[in-house]
Amino acid sequence: MSWPETRSPSTLLFRRHSSGDPKNFASVSSSLLPAFGTVVDENHLQRKKYVIAPYDYRYRWWQAFLVVLVVYSAWASPFELAFRKAASGSLMVVDLVVDAFFAADIVLTFFVAYLDKSTYLLVTDHDKIATRYVTRIWFTMDVASTLPFQFIYRILTGKMQNGDVFGFLNLLRLWRLRRVSELFKRLEKDIRFSYFMTRLSKLICVTLFAVHSAGCFYYWLAIHHHNSDNTWIGSQVHDFKHRSIWLGYTYSIYWSIVTLTTVGYGDLHAVNTGEKLFNMMYMLFNISLTAYIIGNMTNLIVHSAVRTFFMRDAINKILRYASKNGLPEGLKEQMLAHMQLKFKTAELQQDEVLEDLPKAIRSSISQHLFRETVKNAYLFQGVSDDLIAQLVSEMKAEYFPPKVEIILQNEIPTDFYVLVSGSVDVLIFKNGSEQILSKLRAADMAGEIGVMFNIPQPFTVRTKRLSQVIRISHNHLKQVLQADHDDGKKIISNYIGYLKSLKQDMLEELPFLTELLSDMNIKLTAPNEEPQNPEASNSQQDADVKGPETSSSSPSMMPIRVIIHGHHPDTKTTEGDTLGKLIHLPASIEDLFKLAEKKFGKRGSTILMADGTQVEEIDALRENDQLYIF
Q1: Comparing C-alpha atoms, which of 583, 586, 618 is closest to residue 492?
Q2: Which of 53, 369, 533, 571 fits 12 for a cystine, CB–CB 3.0-4.6 Å?
Q3: Sheet holding 396-400, edge to edge
Q4: Where are the alpha helices (DSSP H) in 326-436?
């Protein structure tokens, strides 16, 4: 097997299939990766002429073809030992053809590159390849298992010899079984094949080979006993030596299967001492083989059911915990529903798999799954693709079963959610009863009011049916917006537009909202009134949010709350004036003066901190600062 001169053989080093970019390292076999610290230059990748890469797809097909011939050899070698007439008949021609293919493989091996275990690089030097192969036991055993000893003896002597010595020499062909073992190892790691079916096929092959070999050896004992009638088969078939080969083979396989399965009907049993010794050894071997098969099958079955065991154990722990602590029935049902859903969706989420992937791949997966959903959410409509990409890369997907709270009223706002699928209710608890304020569906948002205003969550959000959401961290959103003022203004614009469309019953639960929007010079839309021109409304929102152009703008587009006072920090005031007024920090110093004038009824010209430091830039202020304006 040689390669055309017009094609560089170096491509075969990098790919196991004929298609694909030869420089694509994603297709490199793990066994060809160089060790850490090993320097690989381009010249190393150029192999000599007539050198075959071990992972070339054509060489792999050749190896697969040889495995088929190995199956024949594994059947024929014990069979020809027991039934000598078949060895000197038609099977001899087949054996010669099979041996010729393995002889060709011996020659081909002198041209196959091998992996250097010290550097994990392919060695392509002909001399090194030949020296390594000849000095290993592989070469000796390959030659010994390939030579047709009986045919060579016939050529040299001109006589046909059917002695047992040639039958035992033919057993050297069983050395070829290592190819089958290597094939199964490769198939177990190949994701295109079922691991369960591969292991099951391997166990079946081992069992069939054991049954076949034991039956043939047992028949060989009967053939070579001095008294044919004093054998396990002679007691049933007196002239079995002169009967059909396939009759004897059928009896042998029947005895082997009955003994292997420990049935032991007793119709075929050991008669002489030699057969009894062989039976004892075979039954001891069966114990080991049965343990091997049962262990592997148990491992395969338990592996497929281990997730179910974990789920049932977790549910039992929840039941014991709920009973011990006297939890109400409704809360216990929520815990059980969440745990069952967790195990049902484990295959979809596979967090343990994603954690092992590089961050770039995880980000690409998130972009593929959630990018469109986030773009359709009202808060992020019209923002740049870069902002969407930064947000999506850090999002977490979660499932919630029906009638489970995603957000609790008055809890600390750390995250908000975008609904991917399902349906949720927004409700409040008032006077001991629930009141549903609105219903949310796919692409709607929940929890953003508490996050944007940095206040305890004003509403409870509960699922109506199985729902999938993606969670966005409050801190991550602030970090992203600090670097992009334009997108921050667009988000605030979208947010104000959403606040204007809130229904009256929701506005009643947010008493500060009317005053806040009034401070930003925005008029609320009537509760049940739809805007006549949405585009004009959005344009007006943008203009209102931007306000007057200033040279210094807030570094963060998230609202910052500060407390303002209408006097000097050293001035003694009444208790009501000492508390001050909590406001959202406007975009400029001038706007802050106007807002203070509106609150205290007098125009100020100086802003001091509590320690007397004068404020000159709005960007220097932080959350919960005490400001004195006079």
Answers
A1: 586
A2: 53
A3: 396-400, 467-473, 415-421, 445-446
A4: 329-344, 346-349, 351-355, 359-376, 385-392
In this prediction the pTM is: 0.51
Decide if 255 contacts 242 (C-beta within 8 A).
no
Q: Rounded to whole angstroms, what are the CA distances from 426 to 353, 406, 407, 414, 423?
A: 34, 10, 9, 18, 10
Q: What is the pLDDT of residues 546-584, one digit of tens each?
A: 333 333 333 344 567 788 888 888 876 655 456 688 888
**3-class secondary-structure state, position 415:** strand
Q: Looking up tokens 């690089």, which residue turns up?
A: 121
The tokens for 505 are 């019953």
Q: What 8-state DSSP symbol labels residue 112?
A: B
Most confident of the following: 101-105, 236-240, 298-302, 374-378: 101-105
Between helix 485-500 and helix 474-482 the angle, nearest 10°, is 130
Task: Read off the tokens for 538.
Answer: 């959005």
Taking each helix axis from N to C end, the angle separating 126-134 and 137-146, rounded to the nearest 10 degrees, works out to 70
pLDDT digits (tens, 9 = 90+) for 188-241: 877 788 888 888 899 999 999 999 999 999 999 998 888 888 889 888 888 888
Compute the distance between CA of residue 15 and CA of residue 25 in angstroms, rounded to an integer.
8
Contacts 24+ apart (CB under 8 A), 26-29: 29/55
List for the chain the helix, strand, coil content (%; round to 5).
55, 10, 35
Query: CA–CA distance from 312 to each of 308, 339, 342, 351, 402 (Å)?
Result: 6, 10, 12, 20, 20
Rounded to whole angstroms, what are the CA distances from 357 to 187, 353, 365? 24, 7, 10
**Which of 289, 445, 280 is closest to 376 using CA atoms?**
445
Query: Inter-axis angle of helices 273-325 and 245-260, to 10 degrees?
Result: 40
- Separation of alpha carbons 313 and 315, rounded Å: 5
